[in-house]
Amino acid sequence: MPTIFRLDGSMPPRLQLLSRAARVAPVPPYQPIAPFLYPALHQQQRAASILSSLSDVKAAYGHRIRRGRGPSSGKGKTSGRGMNGQKQHGKVPWGMNGGQTKDEVINPEKGFVNNFSVEMSPVNLDRIQYWINQGRLDPSKPITLRHLHDSRCIHGIKDGIKLLARGKHELKTPINIVVSRASADAIAAIEKLGGTVTTRFYTKPSIGRILRGETDDMHSLQSRIQMAPAGMEGAEAVAQTISEDRTKYRYRLPDPTSRKDLEYYRDEAHRGYLSHLVEAGHGPSLFFNTPGIVPPGRRRASAKGKGVAAKGENRIW
């Protein structure tokens, strides 16, 4: 700002009012902000400073390797593959041992996978009693595979359900349960209270159809023939069963066809649902004869007439 002079060359008098007012009433000193407001102020100032000074770090990005661009590129001439060797000329498959026998052939994995094994989902008696106490299972009705799945008592069913006897002393309610398999202790504990256990054959496709409500979860063709009304036998009972299944369900629950499954579910000790097909005095086996029972079409030779031809039997010698 230029200096102002009078006509006679002297400077105008200075204003002493402001200086006197400052001496009389000085300006109050700076009062800092409350300490609890410091974090908020610092965060705002820091965020603003970061946004205004953002930049890439030089070490954050690496230079793209340009192969085959000469020695000056750092990966030139051989492009990083070296001077000699099979890997210089192309790719090598996994397990390649330079033309020799592969390692997986010399040292193969031990053991095998049993394609006939089944993986049962276990359920114990203490869990069933806990579910009954919580009101998730109704003991007045038969407890089947579908009820155990819908109540979340079992999470995921693979090849079936096996009933185990852990916590058998905690079971206080008589129940009627239908499962794939059951242990002897579990059967004894349930029947001691007046309940029943029935083991039933299931397959993976049938389990999926049961959970979708497309198949009966307990009755099949062989298990319902014995429950037919009085006066209906054989073909009539079968016809009625098929007609009922077609009207109510889209698919029918299958029955076992292999010898191993047939013998398991024909055994009364396992409480199999096919045990009613076994005649009195006979065993569940389809191959071995029951001791003490003469097979049909044969006669036991007496001790005296051993080796003598029976009467009416045609013999050449």
From TrEMBL:
InterPro entries, per the entry: Ribosomal_uL15, Ribosomal_uL15/eL18, Ribosomal_uL15/eL18_sf, Ribosomal_uL15_bac-type
Pfam families tied to this protein: Ribosomal_L27A
Sorted UniProt keywords: Ribonucleoprotein, Ribosomal protein
GO terms for cellular component: mitochondrial large ribosomal subunit
Region span, Disordered: 62-100, 297-317
Source organism, top-level taxon: Eukaryota
Large ribosomal subunit protein uL15/eL18 domain span: 122-198
Gly residues bias: start-end ranges: 71-83
Example GO molecular function: structural constituent of ribosome
A biological process from GO: translation
Coiled-coil region(s): none
Family note: Belongs to the universal ribosomal protein uL15 family.
HAMAP family reported in the protein's UniProt record: Ribosomal_uL15
Annotated protein name in UniProt: Large ribosomal subunit protein uL15/eL18 domain-containing protein
Species of the source: Cryoendolithus antarcticus
